[in-house]
Amino acid sequence: MTVPVLMYHSVAADPADAARGLSVHPDRFAAQLDLLAAEGFTTLTVGELAAVRRGEVPAPDRPIVLTFDDGYADFHREALPRLAGARARATVFVTTGWLDDAGAEAAGRPLDRMLSWSQVDECDAAGVEIGAHSHSHAQLDQLPDAALRDELSRSRRLLEERLGHEVPHLAYPYGYSSARVRRAVADAGYRLAAAVGNLAAAPGSDGYALPRLTVARDTDLDTFGRVVRGEQHARIYWKQRTLTAGYLVVRRGRSALAAVSSGRRPS
Fold first, then answer.
1. Where is the NodB homology domain (predicted)?
2. Domain annotation covers residue 251
3. Tens digit of pLDDT at every position of the chain (267 positions)
4. Does 53 reside within a domain?
5. Which domain does 148 fall in, by range?
6. Is the dihedral of CA 223, 226, 228, 232 positive or negative?
């Protein structure tokens, strides 16, 4: 069964400029949830999808997965009550170094106001699945091995220590990975990792590069409906796929140069 896995970021009426393009207005988000309910979709967390993929539980009718990257504070304020009202499941991938009260662990540059640790706790208690999104939102495929391992292990450790349970899923910052990064993710104990791809997740798709479909500021309700129904993905996302393909060539070149300079094998 092919499953649409949606990728959100901010849900805000007036986000910071840096986060605007990948934000969704709260009213539009509510309308999207209404559409999913009206058309009989069953929302799953990433962990629940992983269990379906492993054959541990049967797939529900019309499954769909809602994911939110970075950990913006507006998830708690805007998305969480709307998800609860719709009885919808979701996964939030948290950048631990970006948290509003990260303190001595602060790292990277958040694009807008981020969740606090207490809000992460409240989301977890409300049934939202918490996943990792690295520690500083680094471009993982450009990091040397030691820094890569730290980004992966630190974010997971901080989340598990705080929440008191396993955090086995990760989303790649910027959606980028490589064979070396995916090996490191598996070695760090993650059992599934989400990319972008702008494709629906087919049964045989790589569990360490789970494709997702971008929902952005300019995704109107008609387009959203076509996305979740699996209609015209190639047409809807042609620009994003073209840019991604071109930038992938650039990134692989940078990674190869960095590997040569550091004495490791290119990934």
1. 62-267
2. no
3. 799 999 999 999 999 999 999 999 999 999 999 999 999 999 999 999 999 999 999 999 999 999 999 999 999 999 999 999 999 999 999 999 999 999 999 999 999 999 999 999 999 999 999 999 999 999 999 999 999 999 999 999 999 999 999 999 999 999 989 999 999 999 999 999 999 989 999 988 899 999 999 999 999 999 999 999 999 888 898 777 676 554 454 455 554 455 545 566 655
4. yes
5. 5-231
6. negative
Q: Is residue 244 assigned to a domain?
A: no
The set of residues, in sequence order, having a beta carbon less than 8 Å from that of 192 and lying 6+ positions away, is 46, 50, 168, 169, 170, 207, 208, 210
The reported pTM is 0.91
Instruction: Quote the number of domains for the chain.
Output: 1
b/e string for 82-95 if b means 16 or more Cβ within 10 A?
bbeebebbbbbbbb
CA–CA distance, 22 with 4 (Å, rounded to integer): 18
